[in-house]
Amino acid sequence: MTIQIRKGKRATEPQCLGSQRSLNSEDLLFPNQTGDSKAAVYFQLSNGRFRPPPAHRLIAHHIVDTIAPIFFRVSRTMWLPLRLTLLLLFLLLSPRALLRSGSAAVVSGEEEEFHEELLLKPLPDRKVLAHFHFHSIAPPSKSNGRHHHLFPKAISQLVLFPSSVPFAMWSDLDLILNFLFRLLNNCFSSSRKYDVFLIVFALIGVIVGEFLSFGQVQKFRVKEMELSFTQGRWNYERWGGFDPISSNNAKPPGVELWAVFDVPEDQVDAYWKNLTNSLSGLFCASINFLESSTMYSAPKWSFRITPGRLRYGTLPREAVCTENLTPWLKLLPCRDKAGLAALLDRPSIYKGFYHSQRLYLTSNASVPAETVSGISLEQTLTVVLQPNSPSSSSIHSGESNFQPSWSLSSIFGRKISGKCVLAQSSIVYLQLEKSIFSEQKDNMDNGPNSLASEGFAGGSGFEMSLDPDIVIEEENQSQHKGSSVLYGFWVEKYNESQPFDLGLKWKYPVFWSSRQAPLHASRFLMGSGNERGAIAILFKSANSADSSSGSRHVSDGCELQVDVFQVVPWYIKVYYHSLQIFVDDEAKPIGDFVHKIQVSPSKDKTSPGMMEMLLKLPCDVRSAALTLEFDKGFLHIDEYPPDANQGYDIPSAVISFPSFHSVMHLLSNDSIRKSPLLSRFQEKNRVQSYTEVLLVPLTTPDFSMPYNVITITCTVFALFFGSLLNVLRRRVGEEERYLKAGKKKGWLRVLLSRLLAKLRGKPMEEPDQPSSESAPLIGKKLVLKVILVAVLAVAWQFYST
Amino acid sequence: MPTANTEEENSKSELQKNHGGGGGFTRWAVVAVIFRLALIYFPGNLNLSSRPEVSTPLTSIRRLAEGYWLKQSSMSPYAGSMYHGSPLLLSVLGPLTVKRIEGQPSHILCSLVFVLADLISSILIRATGRKLQIAYRKSLKSLNLLNKSTDSGALSSGDIAALVYLWNPFTIVACVGLSTSPVENLFTILTLYGAATGLAPLAAFGWVMATHLSLYPAILIIPVNLSYSGSWFYPPAPLSPEYTYAPPSKLFRSKEHGKVGDGKSSQEIIFSWRRVFHLLVWTSLWSVYVLVLCSISVKQHGSLQEMFQRTYGFILTVEDLSPNIGVLWYFFAEVFDFFRDFFLIVFHSNILFMILPLAIRLKHRPCFLAFVYIAISSMLKSYPSVGDSALYLGLLGLFLDELADMQFSFFLFCGYVGVSLLSPVMHNLWIWRGTGNANFYYATAMAYACFQIVLVVESVSSMLNHDRKLTKLSTSKLQK
Description:
The structure holds 2 protein chains of 2 kinds.
Chain A: H1 2-12, H2 21-29, E1 44-46, E2 49-51, H3 55-76, H4 80-107, E3 113-122, E4 128-138, H5 153-156, H6 165-171, H7 173-190, H8 195-217, E5 222-231, H9 236-239, H10 244-249, E6 254-261, H11 268-283, E7 296-297, E8 309-315, H12 322-330, H13 346-350, E9 354-363, E10 375-385, H14 395-398, E11 406-407, H15 408-412, E12 425-433, H16 434-444, H17 451-457, E13 462-464, E14 470-473, E15 484-490, E16 503-506, E17 519-526, E18 532-541, H18 544-549, E19 559-568, E20 572-583, E21 586-588, E22 594-600, E23 609-618, E24 623-632, E25 648-650, E26 654-662, H19 670-674, H20 676-681, E27 685-690, E28 694-696, H21 706-729, H22 732-760, H23 768-800
Helix pairs in contact in A: 3-4, 3-7, 7-8
Chain B: H1 2-19, H2 23-40, H3 61-72, H4 87-98, H5 108-142, H6 157-167, H7 169-176, H8 181-197, H9 200-214, H10 221-231, H11 250-259, H12 263-269, H13 273-298, H14 304-317, H15 328-334, H16 340-353, H17 355-361, H18 366-380, H19 386-396, H20 409-433, H21 438-479
Helix pairs in contact in B: 2-5, 2-6, 3-4, 5-6, 5-8, 6-19, 7-19, 8-9, 8-10, 9-13, 10-13, 10-18, 16-18, 18-19, 18-21, 20-21
Protein name (chain A): GPI transamidase component PIG-T
InterPro entries (chain A): PIG-T
Transmembrane segments (chain A): 196-215, 707-728, 782-799
């Protein structure tokens, strides 16, 4: 069943480019949150659950709007008991609600935050990287309960901590009350008496729903989670493998999900299943396939350094499309109606070479001591696009020389008309490699100009259509290469009449290369046929000059540490003892280079195989290769997907370099500290890259054969059983004896009959008589039998046709 | 007693005289071993160890090496679903898989172990055959039929059986292809030898080990008991018309009483429950010993329960659906999950169903009964390989005299040759070239199963006929 759903999804894939129909229809369901509070619709249905607006506002409104007319109407009616009950209910509940609204107003100093940022970066191969970064932070407020101004509730539910649960219960009471009073209002206005039942039912329903949601809160307890949807493959060689974007935002194709849970070890799997199912619903993707234990693994140390109750799963073949992007955008307060997200024009995004939408959630809510940030949600969208340069006709003449000039409107087909009103900051950065400037200096011999003046003054090789508001330079610490300059633009200065449309125009041909990870990892399959094969992971030194000069700061002996984390599905039966390592094309003993290895071998139909390995290679290594042999498994006919001959995917291996950190050392500035994007860049993360997804063809049985196979095999068994039993019970000796006995008897009988005949004095005709008499009798029986069989045959023929 | 001894001596000397001793056998055996060694050193990698005909999930040396690797890296060898063999085999062969000798092919030590196992097996078969032939001749002599069935072959049936076992391409392939079936076969043959020579500890040890290694030899306990507990030394009981429903040994008792007049022989003839008990005591002793050894070797990372789940459970539930020469893999790859358990029970009980009828009918020929059991189980087992076929084809040679007038023998020979040539071709077409499909390979497996069925049925039938003939002759002699 589920497989067919997947297939269905794949079938719709071609259509989804440019189809925004679904988006618009869903927009109707979600009126803009940013609208005037008076006009705000209180009941917003988000994934079948109530999504309340801010608590204190709501309470104030329902007191003013609803209760007064209800009292008025109630007093007019004669339903005293009901009125009394309601009054009682109200008196019981309203003080708490009022109290709560007051407390909410007090705490509101701790605001939820939302930042939107966009990083644009021209890539060496004439493409442009656009990296959207949306950051929502919800403070760890117990008072707020489950209500948020900006933070998406669906996400906050994933981390809700137990201490907030009773508050969550109470905080929804105002919602209940509001609902109830509205119903009452309706009821009295229409003055239909049986509506009382409706009210009672509604009350019961609300309470039951509340308790259900109370249970639901306990289902997740996510401490840290990352979910990414990716299409295309990040080109590590050209687009860089060392900078924070490639380490954090380059993701394997399809869906990748990992999560750290805040529950005891034995419950992690159950929580993981809940999480996959809810995310599957939330993002309209087949993440629920990760629920099965054959799809996820629990890496110990190679995937992330911090130990935790981690589960990791990928779906390499998941098709990513607008249906996944739309729910992702729904989590933003302004959605794609205003702010930077308005740039996200579906056709231009999906036209690109690489597209990765990512959701990173952290919460230290479970640790009450930490009061820093309750829940932080980082939504990033990384796209690599090819700007269609206006001078496309001149491609043949000077294609390699000129970088294409572009502007936001030419890439996305849209302009930014102001920031999202709810965003604390809205900044666009343009990142350029510093090596461009040095090159230009060499070319132009302009003299010692400062970068800031040079960049936008137009005196250099490029020209920006707008003046940057801030110029941030990366500190040169280790080496000159790879450091860059950031130009920041405040979007809030622009509005509808004067939209933000940054353009970059190159004046001179420039060349630069992105900074590479120390080793470039790729993975491929070896062998042919459908019986066995081998997986090879090949590391190549990114650029020998770089590795020889820089990055030597590791330690004595100069070792290059490489972590390999590879998950293999169970039907790829890997022989771990066949691990071979080739350093500089020479087979070497494994113990010399493999510092640490941990394997959890695959169990048929139960768990995937997982390999974690820490390699220590010499720094001057040119190439290193790991090979692992495997046998291909044979599946049951039901386990094959509908397109069985396409093959099976082996998820990407994760290669990380623990001794290298992708960090940008920016000159610390107040604006940088405020910007979540830049502060994220300054975090120390180890350099990490993903290898290719491998496609393994598996042998298929004949899918049309089950009945034939069953019948033929059973026939052979019957042949064996029947013929052997027949041989065993056949008794030639007995037959002989019987024959002999018969002969004897006959002889005796003949003798007796002769004797009798002699005694009677008659010739012996007696034995003949019965035989002659019985002959017609047998004939009759025979005829009857034949007729019966014929009748049966005719009847059979008649009824079977 | 002395007369019996002299008789035995006489027949032995007769054998030696007739067949020129073991000179021919020794020569051929040495040549076979050299041939195997030459194949092991064969420069081109034949890749026999990953052929589905040779190595099954149970007998594959690569899986054993993987299990050993897991054990060395302080995990249970049964973690993951790679290794399904015995922990004892792992601790014996495991170190040999990783030991490399410079300039020699990898796994050379394992290969030598398997060659040795093959050689010992053939010697044991030969000894069993001699014992069998002596008993046979003795019985014929006691019936005064010896002149009737003097064979004209150059070698005795035991020698022939041993050479058939050694020179069978199936055995050679299984040995060179590094599957562990030579070792399993060795223990099965050891069981038969022990039973034939009346050595209860040896028979019990062989049986326990063979059962531990591959489960199916468990049914051999019946022929072993029959053989050990008395029926063995007594000639085939002819099914004479007078004695059809009487104990088969009656005829001989009357015969021997008449001839020898020795009270001891009549005492021996009776199926002795004491000897059964004796054997069972030895069996349980060895079982406890083997279990203790196993628990010691799996104690670190697993438990005995895990071991049974991973070995016997794996055999009985047919978890691995990779193609082999058996009949079950494709069936369970295609059958609806709902019926899976039902068919598992049906197919396994097919082996068990046949135990009792065969035991009743062939109880006077325990060795032949064992052969039939082995043939049936190697045909219907979950993961059969050519190594199993090699065993029963070798044992078939032991009954050369009795099965002389077996039908379809040429047809069967051609069938075996044809299937063993076609099966790799079909496998190649399906798996490697992708031009054929699974049905091709399945068809050869079906044909192979049919040939095996014909072999079993015909051999049983001709053995029964042979007994009938003997009966006839003896009764006619009696009547004279």
